Automatic annotation (TrEMBL):
Coiled-coil spans in chain: none
Name this polypeptide is given: HTH cro/C1-type domain-containing protein
Domain of life: Bacteria
Entries under InterPro entries matching the protein: Cro/C1-type_HTH, Lambda_DNA-bd_dom_sf, TPR-like_helical_dom_sf
PROSITE patterns given in the database record: HTH_CROC1
Residues annotated as domain HTH cro/C1-type: 12-65
Originating organism: Siminovitchia terrae
Length: 412
């Protein structure tokens, strides 16, 4: 990047005000106040000699500006590469380098890219407070964005919605972004990955596989091995949901083989949990119990541990281990009361009523609390599972209600 990419006029104004200098004091003997004012506020063309004299009076080296301007684009590019590679350690190093040049970036034509990349970086490291600050900054300057930058902001907003668990709104945005085809090419693999993720979260496993394979192809082109691993994990879950157990097993074999090599231990808990589900669906119950326990042991936070405990407890219920299941449910209900796991709170309250032989209360709670929540947030598979329970329950008690729930399942 060369000097014309820098708004030197705005930079001079900033440093003049920082030093409490008037325009007259700065331009005395160099140029007129009128000329300086136009230069500061409108970046009016000024000859190189005048710029050097103004910078010299401010104690700023033109050489330092030129060196900084030449490295900004490279540093931002490095930050993006680290973020898209999911390399958090390198991303932190790149972020620090970029921040060292923040003052210069403020007066460059890369200001939009800077805030967009920082937004994505904060989402990567789960720093939601700073992500929201960047989001607000971007809103304030978005009117000056080019079409591609506006599209990138929409895309990043969709990622934030995923983190909040709002999969359907996120998917709607991402599919529009794909259709518009304005997203810069380095982001395409991640776009396909997050579309697959949303489809998987909404239990449209066929679409999840379709986009997961597209993401896998793109990540393979750039040798992005860690993101390949993430994508294969996503595919393993989707194949399991589709009953394609051999395909799912193949994905998990790759993950087991490469997880330690790629320093992907943060995947351990979720991977063991979902592999246990595959074992459960293929009738290997004792193995499934073992891997659910592995998942709890490798949980890196309370939420991961709770999710694994929920999966483990559902298996206990299906295997008729009532007493242990009830003990776990008490813990689940206690620990999800103030967490984001509202769905688990509702479902396990229903299970608690059932295991305590309070069927009428369990079904009433299912109808009035659980199903409306599942429907509102598009948990389609869970909705169908529990709607079927209600349909069967009402089949001998209220034929109209039974038919209503069978119809709701068919619509999905």
């Amino acid at each position: 990047m060369n000097l014309e990419k820098m708004n030197i006029g705005a930079m001079i104004k900033y440093h003049r005000q920082l030093r409490n200098m008037t325009q007259s004091e700065l331009c005395n003997g160099i140029c007129s106040v009128t000329h300086l004012s136009k230069f500061e506020n409108y970046n009016k063309e000024v000859n190189q000699e005048t710029i050097m004299l103004l910078l010299d009076r401010l104690g700023i080296s033109l050489d330092s500006i030129q060196k900084a301007s030449e490295s900004i684009a490279a540093d931002l590019s490095d930050l993006l590469d680290a973020v898209l590679s999911y390399d958090k350690i390198r991303a932190e190093e790149c972020y620090q380098r970029v921040q060292e040049q923040r003052e210069y970036i403020t007066f460059s034509n890369y200001i939009a890219r800077y805030h967009l990349y920082l937004y994505r970086y904060f989402l990567l490291i789960n720093d939601f407070s700073n992500a929201e600050k960047e989001q607000e900054t971007i809103r304030q300057i978005a009117n000056s964005f080019a079409a591609q930058e506006k599209e990138l902001y929409e895309y990043l907003h969709a990622i934030f919605l995923i983190i909040k668990g709002e999969y359907k709104p996120s998917l709607d945005i991402l599919l529009k972004v794909e259709a518009n085809d304005l997203l810069p090419s380095p982001w395409k693999a991640e776009l396909y990955y997050f579309i697959a993720f949303d489809f998987g979260s909404l239990k449209d496993s066929s679409s999840c596989v379709a986009y997961g394979l597209k993401a896998l192809e793109e990540y393979s082109k750039s040798f992005n091995y860690l993101r390949i691993l993430h994508t294969q994990f996503l595919l393993g879950i989707a194949y399991t949901d589709l009953g394609l157990y051999d395909n799912a097993e193949e994905q998990y074999r790759y993950i087991f083989k490469n997880m330690n090599l790629l320093n992907a231990k943060e995947l351990s808990s979720a991977m063991y949990n979902n592999y246990a589900l595959l074992l459960e669906k293929t009738g290997k119950m004792e193995e499934a119990f073992k891997f659910y326990l592995y998942s709890m042991e490798h949980a890196k936070n309370d939420i991961e541990h709770l999710m694994s405990l929920c999966s483990y407890t559902e298996l206990l219920i299906t295997q008729g281990k009532k007493e242990e299941a009830l003990r776990n449910i008490s813990k689940i209900l206690r620990e999800t009361k103030t967490s984001a796991l509202r769905k688990q709170q509702l479902i396990f309250r229903h299970y608690q009523y059932l295991l305590k032989d309070q069927e009428e209360k369990a079904m009433s709670y299912l109808e009035e609390e659980v199903l409306p929540y599942l429907e509102k947030f598009f948990f389609i598979e869970d909705y169908n599972k529990f709607a079927l329970s209600l349909a069967k329950y009402f089949s001998t008690k209220d034929t109209d209600k039974a038919l209503f729930y069978y119809k709701k399942i068919a619509e999905r």
